[in-house]
Amino acid sequence: MAEIIKTALITGGSKGIGYGIAEVLINDGIRVAITSRSQEGADEAAASLNQIKAGFALGFAADVRDLASQQQAVDAVLQEWGRLDYVIANAGVGHFAPIQTLTPEQWQETIDINLTGVFNSIKASLTALKETAGYFITISSLAGTNFFENGTAYNASKFGLVGFSQALMLDLRSEGIKVTTIMPGSVASYFNNHEPSEKDAWKIQPEDIGQIVVDLIHMPARTLPSKIEVRPSRPGGK
């Protein structure tokens, strides 16, 4: 009997947290499809990931703000690999400004990507996940429970994502689909145009989030950690 190789779809997987998750999943023997708004970026990341295990990564251009685009990505995974076991809704954006200067366009983009984008991801993948008793994991933030100055848009999107994810968990667990939201603090990623450097060594690393995802996947089927907060163990490298 042929070995079943499980598959994952990661939104926003061409760099940062998404890419770190993809690396760890592939090392765990899971095929990974990543999406990016740029086909070039998706192809470059997939080529790099395939150096870990040849044929274990695919890259697609997809925009989480567009349900049809998300459905196309899911359909492409199913066409290539025949199954979808895990979806990691990771794509995100941050606009940080006081309400006096926050533009309607910045507000809309934040909500559309960070919250509506996750809705689109589960709507597109729900049928496939039912067939595999799969896992839907959302990447939120500690900003989903802790508000801060200049965070009106980001806080609103992440507070909403935490609530959405927890209600989604209750909707889907009776159908055999697990849902967890991971809420990281400071991560050494490219978020908000940051360029990771040695100064970020104290922060959570993208592969650390990947390890959490793998740990969740390997939890006993009867057990569901529905919300995980994760912080640097020594803030600021102290």
UniProtKB/TrEMBL annotation:
Ranges of residues in domain Ketoreductase: 6-207
Gene Ontology terms describing biological process: monocarboxylic acid metabolic process
Residue ranges crossing the lipid bilayer per the database entry: none
InterPro entries recorded: KR_dom, NAD(P)-bd_dom_sf, Sc_DH/Rdtase_CS, SDR, SDR_fam
SMART domains referenced in this protein's UniProt entry, alphabetically: PKS_KR
Pfam families: adh_short (PF00106)
SUPFAM superfamilies in the record: NAD(P)-binding Rossmann-fold domains (SSF51735)
Signal peptide: none
Gene3D superfamilies cross-referenced by the UniProt entry: NAD(P)-binding Rossmann-like Domain (3.40.50.720)
UniProt record similarity statement: Belongs to the short-chain dehydrogenases/reductases (SDR) family.
Name of the protein: SDR family oxidoreductase
Organism: Larkinella rosea
